[in-house]
Structure formats: C-alpha cells, structure tokens
Amino acid sequence: MTSAIRPLVISNVRLADDPSGQPVSVSVAGGRIEAIGPNLAPPPGALVEDGGGALLLPGFVEGHTHLDKTHWGRDWYVNEVGPNLTDRIANEREFRKASGHDAGVQSLALSHAFLAAGTTRLRTHVDIDTDAGLRYLEGVLGTRDTLADVLDMQIVAFPQSGLLIRPGTEKLLGDALAAGADVLGALDPALIDGDPAGSLNATFALAERYGKPIDIHLHEPGEVGAFTFKLLLDRVEAMGMQGRVVVSHAFCLGALPEPTALLERIARLRVALLTSAPPSRPVPPLKRCRELGITIFGGNDGIRDTWTPFGMPDMLERAMLIGMRYDMRRDDDLALAFDCVSAAGAQGCGFADYGLHAGARADLVLVDAETLAHAVVARPVRKLVVSNGRVVARGGVLAGAA
C-alpha cells in the first residue's frame, strides 16, 4: 500500500553537468521532482536535508540481474561446477531443488542491498522451468510487492533450462506472464534449444499473445550468434516489435570481424543491447553502438550464486567495470559508462520519468565526490538515497522507508 510522502527539500548539492559547481537545491513533492535551482524555500512541514556540498546523481538502474538465484547474505557456496553452460544450468537446478532455496527471502535480501547502494529501478530475470514451475516467480513477486513504494522492479519470465527442449515450459511462461511477469525471456535458440527458428517463433508468438516485450539471453558465439541474431531481427521487423526487444550479452557482436551491417539493422529496428562487460568474453562495441543510435546499457548478471562468486549490488562498481572493459580513461568516457547504469538503462528497460528534471520520479543519490568520473572510480558510500520521494538509505545503511 502506498503511504503518504512528506515534501522534501535537499539543499547544498552540486550537479555533475554544471562546471560552475554552484550549489543548488532540489524540491520534491508527491514522489516527483518539483524544481532544481538555487535557494529553494521548503514548504511548511517539509523534510529538509543539507547535502553538504555532495554530488547529486539520479537513482541507478540495474538492467539485468537474477534476484531469484542469489545466495546474498548466506554461507559461502563452494563452486565446483563444470565449464559448460549446460553444466551450470543443471548444477543450479539440482542445487536449488535439494537445498530448498527460497527465492522470496533471497531476492528481498539482495533488493535491500541494491537500494542501500542507490539502485531505484531494476530488471530481474526469474527462472521458469518444469521442475520449479512458478515457485521462484512467486517469491520475487512477493519482494516486488513488499518494496513497491521504493523499488521499481521489472520481472522477466526466463526459461533458464531452455524452451523447446523441456516440454511444458511454453505453457509455464504464459502462466508467468499472466501472473505478473512484465517481460518474456528467452535463451540461446540454437545452442540450447537446437532449433533457432522454432524457438524464436514460439517466443515471439507468446510475446504477441500476452502483449509483452522480449529480453533474450544470447550467449551464442561468432557466426552462430550472428545467424540467430538475424533470425531474431527478421521477426522483430515482421511482427512490428521495434523498440520492444532487448538482446542481453550479445557476445557475437564483439567477435565478428565486421559487424557494421548487423549493427545498422539493429539500430533501424530499435533493438537494445545489454552488457555486463565481462572480462572473459567478447562484448558489443559500445561506442560504435552509441554512434549508430543503439541503446546499450549495463547490468551485473548474477550476483553470488551457483554460477558465479562475483558481483556486487553496486551500479557505480558496474559502471567502473564497464569503463575498465572498454578501456575508458577520459572523464567523458566515464560519463558514458555511468550512462549505461542510469539514463540508457532506463531507456533500454522502458522505465518512465527518469532523470534529474522537474516532473521526473524523485530518485536521487548523494555522494561525496568531486566529479562524476571521480564517483565512478572511487565508488564512495552513498551519503543519501531517495527513491520515489522517500529517504531509503543514509550512509549506505537502509532507512525506515525501505
């Protein structure tokens, strides 16, 4: 249930895009930014915060994570899984079945950590398969309901074990979309399902039936991935899904010797790309994508689960890792890395009313940093986090609204 929100004025903060460094104030009412400017007077009854000269940033956007899988806050998981994608899928499925992994408890724990570090918008993929049915989805839906006032969460119904190779999954995906999932997921139509045309046909038919966008994991390498990508673009064009499809990972785009023609078609069809900027895999050419007008944004992927011991619910760290992976050293390049976990993330996921302007949802983060580039590389503790007009964290620790 949405509770009443006190008006809020934060004074003495600096804007990253203002070279003068002059302090401004931000006034917030009804969960929205009313104004940003010098010396704004607080209305009667407003909560007043002194920003102490901190840098003001918009709330961060996590574009791709897996809240249902995480072991965040639990004992260390000893990872002995094999090297193949199919090894990791089978290992996780068996572990979760044997351990009684509680997706509701774990997704809430990781969501709290995201909030404390300044993430106010988040897209999570949730496994739907014939072993678990909708159990993991139900847990994450509970977390979304619990944090509805302070965390804008999109849920992707994701067939982690494959679609066509596990009969019954297609119906479960439809049930998940009917139950509240926002986006239809998909996975490696050629290398997992073994039938790229059939897998994509089933995915696009489901999306059309339920009126949902698509976010597909595409790990397939090189020419195999490019072939699948072209089949996907054919369906985007034929079914009028322009602007409603995200391709996550898209490793093939970083392995092709000359991807320009494919990138140009991706741009024309307004297909967005998600990268976690992994150090060990090819990555889409970020700057070339931006030059062509492709929305490319960032996410962590899994965090502390059976797949990986790595990851932190800190989007400033993810921006830093994007900067390192793409050899970004200039301050303007680091601003581009930050855009991947802020405005571009909001655009790629379709989060509305984002940014630091009047009328935007009041998602604000204060950090003690000289510049935006400094914030990305130093990743200072979040001095204050405001989500949907509510103070949710101070000094990196959750506050009452969360």
From TrEMBL:
EC number per UniProt: 3.5.4.42
Enzyme class: hydrolase
Highest taxon of the lineage: Bacteria
GO molecular function, one term: N-isopropylammelide isopropylaminohydrolase activity
Keyword list, A-Z: Hydrolase
CDD domains in the cross-refs: Bact_CD
A Pfam family annotated for this UniProt entry: Amidohydro_3
InterPro entries, A to Z: Amidohydro_3, Metal-dep_hydrolase_composite, Metal_Hydrolase, Metallo-hydrolase_Enzymes
Domain Amidohydrolase residue range list: 49-393
Protein name: N-isopropylammelide isopropyl amidohydrolase
Organism per entry: Paraburkholderia caffeinitolerans
